[in-house]
Specification:
mainly alpha, two-stranded antiparallel sheet
Amino acid sequence: MADLCFICDKKLSEGVSVNVVRGLQTLKTASIERNDGHIDYLNTLSSVNVHSECRKVYTSKNVIIASKRRTDESEPSTSSAPRKKRNEVFDFGKLCLFCGQEADEIAEKKKN
């Protein structure tokens, strides 16, 4: 893996590469935030060669947030509330506009 950029898996000769020593902790932090499994590899190194552009994108906070958002959106949500059937007509006179439950005006007036 010494002649490959661990971020894009392409040869280091295919672009401008840099040897990262001082910024290794930043790469580790980005790997943890991305949860991509590269942290195990990075923990074994004291320096790593990567493409300059790959390093910029990989450690960018905005790109990490966007990547997390895409991952979250692709996973199905199990905590969403069940939706009402679309073929039912909503009865504004009997149902609460906000929660959809039956609204009893007389009971509500007695509470106040």
